[in-house]
């Protein structure tokens, strides 16, 4: 799945490709613009819908 996200550090909109699995997942990927680590949380609901949340390294969620 391809989606646009806003980097929590530099604020730039970037396109990312996310592999959608049957379970929720978390991983870190560097921003394509500022190269800082973005934490991705991908949640898959029972109905198959997917939500993507991004956080900086120091944010709590």
From TrEMBL:
A Pfam family the protein falls into: Zn_ribbon_21
Domain of life: Bacteria
Entry protein name: CPXCG motif-containing cysteine-rich protein
Lineage: Bacteria, Pseudomonadati, Pseudomonadota, Gammaproteobacteria, Oceanospirillales
């Amino acid at each position: 799945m391809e989606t646009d996200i806003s980097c929590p550090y530099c604020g730039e909109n970037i396109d990312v490709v996310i592999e959608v699995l049957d379970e929720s997942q978390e991983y870190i990927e560097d921003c394509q613009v500022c190269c800082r680590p973005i934490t991705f949380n991908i949640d898959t609901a029972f109905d198959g819908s997917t939500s993507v949340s991004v956080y900086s390294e120091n944010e709590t969620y």
